[in-house]
Amino acid sequence: MIDTGTYVYYNKSYHLEKSYFFKVLGIKPKSYIGQTITRIHDYYFKNSCLLIKDYKKYYKKEYSSFIDYLEKKHNLFQHEIVKLKKHKAYYSEKQYTEKFRAGELLNDDLEDNVISENILKIISKEKSSFEEFDLYED
Q1: SS (H, E, C) the chain
Q2: Given strand 89-93, what is the order of strands in its sheet?
Q3: In the chain, what are the domain boundaries?
Q4: What is the pLDDT of residues 5-38, one digit of tens each?
């Protein structure tokens, strides 16, 4: 995941689905923590757009290639572009409204914030199996 401050760029996979978050963290969607996870998820991934689709629909005539489009329109560096898979690369504008302040939970001190820590592990795929997550680890 590439976070530029205003936009988030990522390769879509099942690891980023809300249902995956609930399953891995072992929480119920309608609970308070489920609603918080939903708000954090929506903060990053709601209303995402497929980059290649936007390029072909709106910018193909303006930019000579998809890479040129990513460099010039989205101000991404070459090392960031390499991480994006052409047909799975999405971007989303972060939701900066009071309703979506839940994204700030991830900016808290991660040593003390177990929820944030585990969500970031899911997003970055540092942990591969469900058994490795312990919400109550010291």
Answers
A1: CEECCCEEEEECCHHHCHHHHHHHHCCCCCCHHHHHHHHHHHHHHCCCEEHHHHHHHHHCCCCCCHHHHHHHCCCCCHHHHCCCCCCCEEEEECCCCHHHHHHHHHHCCCCCCHHHHHHHHHHHCCCCCHHHCCCCCC
A2: 2-3, 7-11, 89-93, 49-50
A3: 2-52+90-132
A4: 788 898 888 777 888 888 888 889 888 888 888 8
| pLDDT under 50: residue ranges of the chain | 97-98, 100, 108, 110-112, 126-138
Question: Which pTM was predicted?
Answer: 0.62
**From CA 106, how far away is CA 13, in angstroms rounded?**
21
Mean per-residue pLDDT of the chain: 76
